[in-house]
Each structure stands twice: as C-alpha cells, then as structure tokens.
Amino acid sequence: MSFSSQVFPVYWYQDHVRLIDQTRLPQEYGVVEISRSDDMALAIKTMIVRGAPAIGVAAAYGIYLGAREIQASDRELFLTQLEQIAQKLKATRPTAVNLFWAIDRVMKTARQTLGSVDYIKEAILQTAHSIREEDIETCQAIGEAGLKVLPQQPGQLRLLTHCNAGALATAGYGTALGVVRSAWREGRLERVYADETRPRMQGAKLTTWECVQEGIPVTLITDNMAAHCMKQGMIDAVVVGADRIAANGDAANKIGTYSVALIARAHNIPFFVAAPLSTIDFSLSDGSQIPIEERDPAEVYQTGDTRICPPGVEFYNPAFDVTPAELITAIITEHGAVRPEELIQLQYRQVV
Prior knowledge:
By secondary structure, this protein is α/β, with parallel strands linked by helices. The chain is built from ten helices and 16 strands. It folds into two domains: about 130 residues, Up-down Bundle (Four Helix Bundle (Hemerythrin (Met), subunit A)), CATH 1.20.120; about 200 residues, Rossmann fold.
C-alpha cells in the first residue's frame, strides 16, 4: 500500500531546502528557504525543524549546502572542510541520534565516492534525497507494523500520544502518528488524545494541527490529565515516538514521556514506542548513556512574551527524559514490532 500525508516539513526545491517553520504553527503556516549550511544549523537549533527523523533529513541536506560553499578542488582539503561543517551540524541537538546517523551516512558517501569534488558534491545531494525518500517509506511501514500490535477489541481505539511524532517530525507520515494515521485509515481509530507537552507545547500546537488537517478526531489534554483519563477508561493504548533508543530498549523522548509510561503501567495500558531503526543507538548499552539536551529556561518561565513566575525563581529545563525498557510494551520499527529485549536482533538490519 502506498500513501502519505500531505505534510512534508523538509524538501528540496530547485537549488535550496524548504522547511515548514514549526515555530509559527498553528497560528500561521510558513515556509523557510535555506541555502546555507549555517542557516540549516540555526534552523535545527531553534526548532524551525524538529523531530529526530526530520532533523536527520535536514542535516543531510545541510551537509550538501555546506559542500556547495566549499571552493577547494583538492579532494583531501574538501573533505577536511566538509568534516568541519559536519561537526557544526552535529553540535545543534545532542539527543536526537538521527542527526548523527544521517550526517555520518552522508560523510561516508563523500569519503567513498571517487572522482572530482563536483562529483562528490552531487553524490552527497543524491544521498540526502535518498534519506528523505527512505524515511517516508519507513514511516509508512511503521504505521502498518503498528496495526498488528495495537489492541484488538470491539469498537474503535482511543490512543494517547505525547509530543509530536507525526509528519512534521519526519520526512512525512510520522512514526507514532504514522500508527495513528494507519489506524484511522483502517477504520480502527475513534479518537486521539494529545498531551499538550509542556514547555514547548508540541502536542497542542503540532499534533492537533496535523490531526485537524486530515480530519482525525483529536482531543487536547494538559499533561497532568493523562492519569485521570486512563482511570476513567478513556485510553486504550499509548503510542509515542523517540529521539534515541539504547540497545536495551530504554527510550529517550520528549520530557514527560516517562511519566506517561509510569501511569500507563499503573493502569495496565499498553505503551508503545514507534521509531525507525536509525533512532536506535546500538553503541549505548542503556539509557543512562543518552545525552539529555537542556534548553533555554525562558521556555519554562514565560509563555509567549508573558512571564509566568516571579523574579528570583530558579529553572531546570531538560528537553527529554528516558523511559526504561521494562515500561515499554513493544518498540514498533519498519521491520515490525519487538519487545525491548529483542531489539538487539535488529542491529544488523540497520543501514549505516
């Protein structure tokens, strides 16, 4: 089956990259045009583009934009300068492993491609295109795999998700929302409950926006309503994305995901993580080794331009938390759903 959402947050147009500006949604739909690697690094860092797979695609194109700026015709000098660009892009978001995976894949292409510097540049661009196209296909496969493990029950499903793991977080279609989309198109979904996802409100701003675009019934709840909704029998399963998964199945996702997993376990509700193999970092044995990005405290102490607490308060703003593998029912990948302890079996299917 071939299908896709109509939301494509990262795509190549003529001689530059176009990004949906996710900082302006849902009030305004806008596109940012990126022609320089430094501008791509800034777009990733400021979350104009966000979501682990989407960041990976954007970074791959960022490498090409940087390659295009290099004037050197000597191969070794070109590769040295390209490595500097790669390191600058890698420094933008430390938790999302797809960023590093995509950059390493493009750099491998650059190092292994023979011929002129211009020929290497073209190979880099084609690799970036491939990463984008493969991601859309991967998300569609994740959606199909999710259908096989969602609860089989009379009536339609009510799913809870946290943050945004939809088309906006990928090249298109989505991971967790890919499962939601597939369930909706198969007539198995009654409603999505979207956590608002403080402090940046990706659930409120982005997940609900995507659902509205496709007519998927969606109800927004505050983060602290999840336990109440589960106790009231309103949620049948939880499906979330991930920014990095360790080899043992521990999964880093947007801050607050760990809390949702604990609540789901307390109410005997299945908790699924949907992510491509590129999100799995097999070099890390467990989640304690996943670096956790800390962001600007202004995200916590103000809403828009309005400060919501008095001067003198201190702030802590980790962007992610790690859900232990024992709280995860299954990890849904493009190769099917597996229990966390079985994840290691997929190591050699990962594209490097």
